[in-house]
Each structure stands twice: as C-alpha cells, then as structure tokens.
Amino acid sequence: MSDTNKHIESINSIIENVDVVDLRVPTSDTLLGSDPFHKKPNYSAVLTTIETNTGHKGISVAFTAGAGNDWIAYGVKDLAKLVTGINMSSFVNDPGAFFRLLIDHHQLRWLADGVTRMAIGSIVNAMWDLWAKLVEKPLWKLLVDLPSEKIVQSIDWRYLQDALSPNEGLEILNRNYEYREFREKAITDIGPKAYSTAGWLGLTDEQIIETVNEVKASGLDCFKMKVGQDVNFDKKRLAFIRSVIGDESKLMLDANQIWGVDEAIAHMMELFDFNPTWIEEPTARDDVIGFVKISKSLENYGIGVAAGEQVPSPVIFKQLITSGGIQFCQIDATRLGGVNDVLAVILIAAKYEIPVCPHGGGIGLCNMIQHYAVWDQICVAGHSDTQVVEYLNFLQDDVFIQPIQISNGAYVVPSIPGWGLEMNPKFVEDHTYPTGSIWKDRVESGGITFLA
Question: Residue 311, Cβ neighbours under 10 Å: how many?
Fold first, then answer.
C-alpha cells in the first residue's frame, strides 16, 4: 500500500474509545513549582487518550496543581460521549466545526470558561495529536504544512473580528508563506530560545544555584524568579539571583496574581533596579483594566507586563493585547480550548506586534508549547528575535518516552509524530490518583483537604 493510500485509510478511522487518567505527582514534598499562591502544589495532569478502530492513539494532557484534577477528568469523560463514533475525516475536513460542536454545546456553555474550556481542550488537543500521527508528522510540522485557509477555517472568529478579521489572519499567514522553507530550516537548526524558571519561592538559595548552574550548562541565559510575598525578601533574593546569573542575563519576575493593581505598581517600584524584563501576572488574570494601568505605570521603567498561563479565553487575550495591557503574550498549551483557540491568539499577537513567549512547566506543557513556538516563528511572526519559551528541568526523563531536549540555550525541535506526550507506563501506573503506589498511605495530601 502506498503512503498516500495508507494515510487516506487512516484518516477514515473511527474513534472507538476515550481513556482518561488522573495523574498526580507529590511535588509539595520538594516545593518545586511553589509561588505566592500555590504554596504546596502537586503537579498533576489529566491524561487523555483517544483510540481508533485502526489502532491509532491521540494523546493530550491538561495540567493542574493537584486538587481539582478530577474535575477536569470528569469533564473529559463526559465530553467523550460526543466524540465516540466520529470519523476522523470529519475532523480533518473541518476542525472548526468539530471545535464548535464542543464549545457551543447548548447546555454545557452555561458553565462558561475555566474548567469547561480546559476539558474541551483536552479532547481537541488529542484530536490534533491523532491527526498529526495519521500523517506521520510532528504537530508543528502539521501546522506548518497546512494551507493558510485551513488554519483560518479552524478558528472561531465570532468574538475576535473587532481585533482581527479572518482576511487579516490570512494575510499574516500568507505574507510569510514564501519564506517558510527558509524559516523552517533556520528554526530546526537552532530551535526556539528557552528561559528557565529557577527561583521557585519555596527553594533555598543553594537549591536555586543548583538549578541555575544546571540550565546554564545547557546554554540558557534567561531566568525567572518568583516574587510577591515580602518586598524586603524579594530585594534580597533578587540581589542574590543577579549575583549568580550576572548583569548581562535576562531576569524575569512572576507574581502569580498575588497583588492588587496599585499594590503591584508600588511593589515593582521597589524592584526596578534589578532590571527585570517583565513582571508576569502582577494581578488578577482577567483584570484587563488593571493590566493596562500597571503597564502604563511601568513603561517608563522599561519593565514589560506578561500574562497568559491563566487567561481563560481568547476574548480576554484579545482585550489584553489590543488595550496594551500586556507586552508579552504567554500562551499556555492546556488552559484554552486546544489548538484552535491558541492559533487565534498567536495571530492576534502578531497583528499587534506582541511577542509570543509560551508558558511551560507542569507535566507536558513544555513538550507541547515548543510546537506552537516553532509554528509561530516559521509561519506567523516569521522571526525569532523577541520570543523566549519557558523551560523546566524536571518531570521529563522519568515521565516521557521522548523527553524534551535543550541545546545551546534553545529547544531541540521535535521530530516524532504528534505532540510527543507518550508516557512511561510505570510512571502512569505509580502516579494514578488515588490508586497508584506513590499515593499509598498519603491520599489526603493529594486532594482538596490538603491545605498549606
């Protein structure tokens, strides 16, 4: 059978089953991932696997910080009833129609964004993973090779056209079209530039030095530090960080929404001497007016504002970008409703010349965001001059069969089909909540009654 016929047969496969697993890792033991709000997170993921009658599997993860992981898992299981029996060809022919089937459900829509959109994104991302595997391409390559019209067709434009019309989206994609082959070679040679979150709030100075030195050895020269509990502690910690990374390295700060608007401005006035590139999530994730006020107040100090990992919809992204509320757009791989939503946000950011600097970490987020970064830097922004992509150096080697790789301060562009989210079976078995061996005799510390 020729490759073409094989792909046609695969595309006509039928979805037979959707498997959902609640995975949780007790990172609260080490305080990796700790910040002002998430003091003792247990990094967790809903692992979704869509299976077809031809034996193909599409995989996605939805990242959480522990309690509530089961809420998303339930949502994915419920949505699976709408997906089972679908022919993959219907999704491939019109990804936008499939997306609207889920996002516009006449009763579920009442639940609004947040958990609902994350559950929908779990299904949508697994479908794109399946599509990429059926044509034997990495997810980024599937996106790069799609006609511009197919990308535009995938997006729900209803609430976005006052900021970006479908025709404008098409123009952005087409203006870089003739350079795609050149850009693809360039980005696959060097990879998208990475930065490391080294300064988790609960870590000691010695632990931070260990992390910084480890990622420095991989060529990284951009680092992020958590701030927000106490200004004097922040000053002391940032002085220490600067002494370790040097004045030439970029330093980013992250408050994880701990401040009110005026509090954020006042706190950052105390920290500008450390020359931060941005302050991330200085206030509530959906306070667009607040972000605008903070951005204007910090503009003269050369400090940008970044957000996105908890922005719950493309509409809020639209408002943050078009109002000048953010200067760095941090798309997340599992916060929105999957690939379709993220494509829209990246295109809006391109129109308003806001660099896309994806949020990574968690379980599987770095594995996924690298695909968006590659697509953006080939097809949308068309350059790699202003973007950095978050990288975390844990929960990779023992988790994924094909862990992410960093070289010369950049992601090594993945070459395996799909997202590359296949996990080691032993990890899945041990970390399934609450039955896995990791949770034996400690189930309470993994759930909602575990308080910091």
Answer: 26
Closest C-alpha among 121, 184, 132 to residue 335? 121
Among this protein's residues, is 56 annotated catalytic?
Answer: no
From 226, 267, 371, 431, active-site residue: 226
Sequence-separated (6 or more) residues with CB below 8 Å from residue 87: 12, 13, 14
pTM over 0.90: yes
Q: What is the mean pLDDT of residues 429-439?
A: 97
In this predicted structure, what is the pLDDT of residue 99? 97
Decide if 383 is catalytic: no
- Measured between alpha carbons, how far is 99 from 153 in angstroms, rounded to an integer? 11
Other beta carbons within 10 angstroms of residue 145's beta carbon come to 13
Phi, psi of 333 (to 5 degrees): -75, -20
Q: Which two tokens stand for residue 343?
A: 């494509």
Distance between CA atoms of residues 228 and 299, nearest Å: 20
pLDDT in tens, 131-182: 999 999 999 999 999 999 999 999 999 999 999 999 999 999 999 999 999 9
Q: 3-state DSSP call for residue 193? A: strand
Instruction: Tell me the torsion sign for CA atoms 185, 341, 252, 406.
Output: negative
* Lateral strand order in the sheet of 15-24: 15-24, 44-52, 57-64
Question: 103-107, 199-203, 276-280, 418-422: which range is least confident on average?
Answer: 199-203
328-329: strand order across its sheet: 328-329, 304-307, 278-280, 250-254, 222-226, 194-199, 389-391
Q: What is the pLDDT of residues 98-134, one digit of tens each?
A: 999 999 999 999 999 999 999 999 999 999 999 999 9
> How would you label 219-242 residue by residue, b for 16+ Cβ within 10 Å and e otherwise?
ebbbbbbbbbeeeeebeebbeebb
Integer angstrom CA distances of residue 395 from 51, 107, 153, 222: 25, 37, 35, 20
Question: What pLDDT, on the 0 to 100 scale, is given for residue 205?
Answer: 85
Catalytic one of 193, 359, 371, 431: 359
pLDDT-above-70 percentage for the chain: 98
CA distance 395 to 41: 14
Q: Are 145 and 131 in contact (CB under 8 A)?
A: no
* 87: phi then psi, degrees, rounded to nearest 5: -80, 130
CA 260 to CA 83: how far, in whole Å? 42
How far is it, in rounded angstroms, from Cα 143 to Cα 369? 13
